[in-house]
Amino acid sequence: MENDLVDLELDGELAVITIDRPHARNAISLDTMDELDKALDGAAGSRALAITGAGDRAFVSGGDLKELAALRTEREAGAMAWRMRSICDRIAGFPGPVIAALNGHALGGGAEVAVSADIRIAADDVKIGFNQVALEIMPAWGGAERLVTLVGRSRALLLAGTGRVLDAAEAERVGLVDQVLPRAEFADGWRALAHTLAGRPAGEIKRVMGGVPATEAVAAFARLWVAEEHWAAADKVMNKKK
């Protein structure tokens, strides 16, 4: 078993999970899945979560084919898919905003990890694609369903069905990536954005966007209205107008 497959950094209210297998282009092995689960446990309580990869070649290059090639039965393949799907579901279900910082290419399963986040920020030289069909398989970690939500059913089928890989600019144009930053500004840029989200009530906004009764949405607003943070911010605005 490799050591330190996944790093967890607690940076104030922000938790940063880094998949740290640059020698394997940050491919997901079974041990990596275990470490991701542990990192998500450690991130609990943070107001925002960022997920990225080590180095600048790959965010996540997909499953580790050298290891996963040992899975030869439907039962084994299904168990692996359920395992990683549950992790992507945990990422998507994190209470605060989740940012996928695409430091490198996100291909196959890597694209599935990326779309489990709420927001995708990409360096301008990266590519993203659901190219599992090149191996005569399909997305199985929940990515196909999430892709439909992001780009629509027909475009999702076109992308996943052909395995087309998009550069960052086109991915942003179709809604698969939310913001593209120049490589030189990427590391500081995504972290600054993540800290901004961690410092605002973005978690409450995410919860309401997920679908809650109107009474609960209004109650969430009312709680924020009476909080000290609201009045401190309001005082600053009102004092500027004097």
From TrEMBL:
One annotated GO biological process: fatty acid beta-oxidation
EC number: 4.2.1.17
SUPFAM superfamilies the record matches: ClpP/crotonase
Keywords assigned by UniProt, alphabetized: Fatty acid metabolism, Lipid metabolism, Lyase
Catalyzed reaction equations: a (3S)-3-hydroxyacyl-CoA = a (2E)-enoyl-CoA + H2O; a 4-saturated-(3S)-3-hydroxyacyl-CoA = a (3E)-enoyl-CoA + H2O
InterPro entries (alphabetical): ClpP/crotonase-like_dom_sf (IPR029045), Enoyl-CoA_hyd/isom_CS (IPR018376), Enoyl-CoA_hydra/iso (IPR001753)
Keyword Lyase assigned: yes
Pfam families documented for this protein: ECH_1 (PF00378)
A molecular function (GO) term: 3-hydroxyacyl-CoA dehydratase activity
Statement: the UniProt record of this protein carries the keyword Cell division: no
Highest rank taxon of the organism: Bacteria
Protein function: Could possibly oxidize fatty acids using specific components.
Family the UniProt entry places it in: Belongs to the enoyl-CoA hydratase/isomerase family.
Name of this chain's protein: Enoyl-CoA hydratase
Species, as recorded: Mycolicibacterium smegmatis (strain ATCC 700084 / mc(2)155) (Mycobacterium smegmatis)
Highest classification ranks of the organism: Bacteria, Bacillati, Actinomycetota, Actinomycetes, Mycobacteriales
